[in-house]
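Worked problem 6 (solution included).
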Amino acid sequence: MSLQKQYSLGELYSLAEQCSHDYPATLARKIEYLTEVQVLLGRRAAEAVRDYKRLYAERKRVYAEAYLAAGKDKAQRAELAIIEIRLKEADAEADKVRWHNAVESNDQVINSLKYSLKVLLAEYDNPASARR
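Solution. The predicted structure is:
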């Protein structure tokens, strides 16, 4: 389907929410939308990991440079040099975890909907089911 270029993450979620759970076709459409969401979430999660790793590498570099430049109390001076980077790194790590959790959560929703679709299709195929 590849709606990623056409819609934002929020728009895809909105389209998925508009789909009814009462009919197999609309439930399948919802699963398709959420699958597209999963791709976008995965990309965001990967970007968050990259951002975190870059800040980690920068912190290590600045620490080493400050350590080598310091006369005495090398470790303390190096730690003071990286305080701001540590704070940015903490924020980046939180983003990394948040996006990872979003991917996992969306995956669970998709699996649940697939099961619901399977049950719904079984109900439609069962002539004894007068419900539908």
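Discussion: The CA atoms of residues 58 and 85 lie 8 Å apart.
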